[in-house]
What does this fold into?
Amino acid sequence: MPDSFPDHADPTTARRHAPSLPLGMPATRKLSAEDLGILVLSLIEEADSYGSQLSERIEQLSNGFYRPSPGTLYPALKSLSEHGLLCQQRQGRRKYYRITPPGRDWLALHRQAAERVSSRLQNAGRKLTALYASMSEALDDDALALPLAQEMLSARMDLKAALHESRHASPDAQRRVLRLLQDTAERIRAEADSG
It folds into this structure.
């Protein structure tokens, strides 16, 4: 049984290579490859699945905040299978994934990480739902509200990531960032007040 995921999906090395926000969300993507691997393994432990079912379950878990693309999900499934944590069976044209005993053992050792990933996605989904509700009310058009809420949440996360990444900047750069934040907050308030 592997002690960890392969190089591209090891939760411990991931934190050394990719910047992340204080609560663990990756600074550059909605979910890191490592976190996706942990999440997929925990979801398959709950119920064997096809790849498309996993995408739907992740989207439901996050209230529409995140649905992994096939180009993200299937490499994770392949890697987990190659490392003996999942097995796959063909049913017609589709591959059906099941957790293996070594996969269960590995997941038992990393249960807290799996729970953190799930919790972060659920939290992001709650934020998206709240944004969507307020934008629906303001816009009176549900078709426009959801994409706008998704973009707004992504922009907020990008801003948090940029601020987190700037924390080691020089004092002069920190002052410029502070001025940008103050100016931006003032402009946002002015926009909101103008209706």
Observations:
- The chain has a mean pLDDT of 84.
